[in-house]
Design goal:
The protein has 19 helices and 21 strands. The strands form 7 sheets. The chain has a 7-stranded mixed sheet, with helices on both faces. It is of the alpha+beta class. The protein is globular, with a radius of gyration of 22 Å. Bound molecules: beta-L-fructofuranose. Beta-L-fructofuranose is lined by residues 12-13, 81-83, 101, 239-241, 261-263, 265, 299. Residues 324-333 have a biased composition (Gly residues). Residues 256-469 form the Carbohydrate kinase FGGY C-terminal domain. Belongs to the FGGY kinase family. Keywords: ATP-binding, Disulfide bond, Kinase, Nucleotide-binding, Rhamnose metabolism, Transferase.
């Protein structure tokens, strides 16, 4: 049988990668062609993505992919984080460097938006959870700026990369849903929302769906990368979380998933949105998925909290001349940090630390912004009358216990609000490497956890391309069963005293304010 090769471009908040997937019926293997750091830069007070450097990383990755194999690639797919965008002039020029969703420019936007449209009406129309950085808030904050005034077109980040590669503009649906400008029932633009907020929907090029053709590589890209034949780009679930959920190796329908990385996205796959007031109050989102599905989930801070702690300890270590209190050097693995902290040693020490000594609300937007993470965690412990962690190991344990607790809460809430039963929890993404987090999640949920694959987003990206090219057939269950039979997975059984998690949750009780309502 014929083997096909697909390049998955997967850009995450801490690194980008180009991964080649080799696909034949019953076979699926991944090779990482190139990985590069994603480092945002603050300029004159605004936090920006280094979009040109990311694009160069994509070109280098495609070149590495072309060199890796004498066999031609069948197509390329692109997925990245959500909500952010570039503005283009009529001639296609990028008018401003895209702003990072962690930039605080949207701080006052929710209040402004609420004056035009109540949070209830906005949720009923879009089903999207309140996150201060949703594209609607970014656009409302940008109103009156020269770049937006001059803009002819808006491209979400994966669509921008795709446009630069092919010259063909489009708006991929799964990611478009994170703008908070899509109606999840019609899976089309929520025109009344845009009108109420003064957002010009004609800025967005027409919608594309995962599996649609999205153009072919421009000659300049072929020259730059050494790729020879005309090569198509295929739209995939261009929101990384959409691709990661395709990459969940579930074999039964009663599963919950946690897509881990910088964020933990925990919830269920549904076939219709839940737009109830209870769902809004619990701040659940209805992002659109591949094949008509809905990603019913809540955003939890994720490994960002640990990455930021490690960054703070390393800065402190550099200042005091020590190598950090965990000592030694080594790989920091999936935290994405490249400093001197030995993450393995830190996680071992955290595993030995007192369980559930203190927990914080890992859904609290107070943890979104960069800097001072250990201090913010200490403050949260103090505010809730819990002991303040004294060492990096204790802080790490606090973060992982808190993430596990938030995973459990999100899965319980999602099941209750959608009337579904959960029997298995799948963890995919970078957090799969964090065995302590996986075990704590199994313990907190009181359910078996199946961990893997770590590169779920790239796999979901490859699978959607492979199906569009006719290399494989079937719906999500068939794609997932291919993952189940080809990818290494690890199962964690729940251990320990389950009631300890109930008591820890109770300590947070009142602190876990209902985000949507505030
Ligand atoms: C994960 C992710 C989340 C989104 C956040 C910001 O990488 O895409 O789904 O809420 O990043 O875009």
């Amino acid at each position: 049988t014929k083997e096909h090769r697909f390049a998955a471009v997967d850009l995450g908040a801490s690194s980008g990668r180009v991964i080649v997937g080799e696909v034949a019926p019953e076979r699926l293997t991944l090779h990482e062609a190139h990985r590069f750091p994603n480092q945002p830069t603050r300029v004159l007070g605004t936090l920006h993505w280094n979009i040109m450097s990311l694009y160069q990383g994509v070109l280098n990755g495609l070149k590495a992919a072309a060199n890796r194999t004498p066999h031609p690639l069948t197509s390329i797919g692109i997925d990245t984080w959500a909500v952010d965008y570039g503005l283009l002039a009529a001639d296609g020029t990028l008018l401003a460097n895209p702003v990072h969703y962690r930039d605080p420019r949207t701080t006052n936007a929710p209040e402004k938006v609420a004056k035009a449209l109540s949070p209830q009406a906005l949720y009923a129309a879009t089903g999207i959870q309140h996150l201060p950085f949703n594209t609607v808030y970014q656009l409302v904050s940008a109103q009156g700026t020269p770049a937006l005034a001059a803009a002819h077109r808006l491209l979400l980040i994966p669509d921008l990369i795709s446009y630069w590669l092919t010259g063909e503009p489009g708006t991929e649906l799964t990611n478009a849903s994170t703008t908070q400008l899509i109606d999840p029932r019609t899976r089309d633009w929520a025109t009344p929302v845009a009108q109420a907020l003064g957002i010009d929907l004609t800025l967005f090029p027409p919608l594309r769906h995962p599996g649609d053709a999205a153009g072919t590589l421009r000659q300049e890209v072929l020259t730059e990368t050494g790729l020879t034949t005309p090569l198509p780009v295929t739209a995939v679930g261009s929101h990384d979380t959409a691709s990661a959920v395709v990459g969940v190796p579930a074999t039964t329908p009663d599963f919950a998933y946690i897509a881990t990385g910088t964020w933990s996205l925990a919830g269920l796959e549904l076939d219709a949105p839940v737009l109830t007031e209870a769902s809004r109050a619990a701040n659940f989102t209805n992002e659109l998925g591949v094949d008509g599905t809905v990603r019913y989930l809540r955003n939890i801070m994720g490994l960002w909290m640990l990455q930021e702690c490690v960054r703070a300890w390393e800065t402190e270590g550099a200042r005091t001349g020590s190598t950090g209190s965990t000592g030694g050097t080594g790989s920091t693995g999936s935290t994405g940090s490249t400093g001197s902290t030995n993450l393995t040693a830190l996680l071992q020490a955290a595993a030995q630390a007192t369980p559930l000594r203190s927990v914080v609300d890992a859904g609290d937007p107070a943890f979104i912004a960069p800097h001072h993470m250990p201090d913010r965690i200490a403050d949260a412990c103090r505010r809730t009358g819990q002991p303040v962690p004294r060492t990096p190991a204790e802080t790490t344990r606090c973060v992982l216990d808190s993430l596990a607790l938030a995973h459990r809460r999100a899965i319980d809430d999602a099941a209750r609000l959608s009337g579904r039963t959960v029997r298995t929890v799948h963890i995919v993404g970078g957090g799969v490497h964090n065995t302590l987090l996986c075990q704590l999640t199994a313990d907190a949920c009181g359910l078996p956890v199946i961990a893997g694959p770590a590169e779920a987003a790239a796999l979901g990206n490859v699978l959607v391309q492979a199906r569009a090219a006719g290399a494989i057939t079937g719906g999500l269950p068939e794609l997932r069963s291919l993952l189940h039979s080809t990818q290494p997975l690890r199962q964690y059984e729940p251990t320990g005293d389950h009631s300890a998690w109930d008591r820890a949750a109770a300590r947070l009780g009142a602190a876990q304010v209902t985000r949507a309502a505030t």
